[in-house]
Design brief:
globular, disordered C terminus, Rna Polymerase Sigma Factor, Chain: A, 19 helices, single chain, mainly alpha
Amino acid sequence: MTGHPAPDPAVSAAVAEAHRREWAFVLAATARVAGDIDLAEECVQDAYVAALGAWSRQGVPRNPGAWLTTAARRRALDALRRDRTLQAKLPLLIEPGSSSGTGSQPAAGPVAAGAAAGTEDDVIADDRLRLVFTCCHPALAREAQVALTLRLLCGLTTAEIAQAFLVSEPTMAARVTRAKKKIAAARIPYRVPGPAELPDRLDAVLTVVHLLYTTGHTAPAGPDLVRADLVERALGLARMLRELMPDEREVRGLLALLLLTDARRATRTAADGRLLLLEEQDRSRWDRAAIGEGTGLVTGALRGQAGAAGAARSGRFVLQAAIAAVHAEAPSYGETDWPQLLRLYDELLRAWPTPVVALNRAVVHAMVAGPEAGLADIDGIERDGRLAGYRYLPAARADLLRRLGRYPDAARAYRSALDLTTGDAERAFLARRIAEVSAGPPGAGQPE
């Protein structure tokens, strides 16, 4: 018995690239037709499998996303027709009156209402935004909202999402499954909510877009430091939210944060792929247009809030954008206004008291008051325990120990960070640091 011939490597590469770049577009468009997220995901997966064979015979289409969307939507329509046929025939197979409502619900599934409406929210041109709001419905827990959106909108693997959440892969898989079942049971509509609903849903959506960006900004695994497709997708979604809610300061803050951070993208690695720290980057190559747009957004957001209740009322995305603006506007690393950054981190820690914010503040505190002060902060964060398994915690400790000349301790901390890191660029950086501190002070011989 012979199996199917192996697909052409070029075709396999094209399908893999289409999965990276087109998954969200294809799934979101199919969900509108299918009216059911599980059905849409199944049809999209089938379309990608079909593409391997069809593209091998016919060649890779000029627009892979359009081909995949058409194939997936056809499969969804076929499934819905089969379901309608079954619903029509069921009364012939059971005694009259014995049904408890079978066939009374729309066949399309839990998001049928939003899909059937068709043009009710056509002001939003991109179906992905509908999918974001569906996954961020208040009936779902916050962790489930973000995880499900990253899975469905971005096609991230369960392992990648688990790493972003600092939980195990089985835990994340169960979380995603429960969230999808909740959407089905609650018949959550596939639509952008009305104006009265938007404020309550906004923070979850902003969190989703921000996590999407950070996952692309420093990819959790693989040879490349940046996943440009995820970064650009997050920026596109942030701009859509800005168009949808132009008066929301936190929306402006999120877009500003992404623009100011992404302005450094071209300088974060050397030509050989080596990771470059902020102090090593060529600031003349930073994207000044993005910095100008970002600082304009955050300045307007802060000015508006100061007119109402002062900086203490600033939201977490506006404050993070203000921090990014201080870095972006500094002429050099040495001329960074560290005291201002510490004040902003104090505000952020009050607005968003998380251990990751506390860790970032500890690094800035060390720049203001010295490495010992930063280490004392990190000791408290470690005792808290919530960042166990977070690779940047031992990495931050290692850097402060290195600055203090405590090289053996620094080497141990760097090794702990390396054990928690999967991205190639970050692993290579940590390995270099381990080699440096293992050699001891400059001019010292190699240890025996």
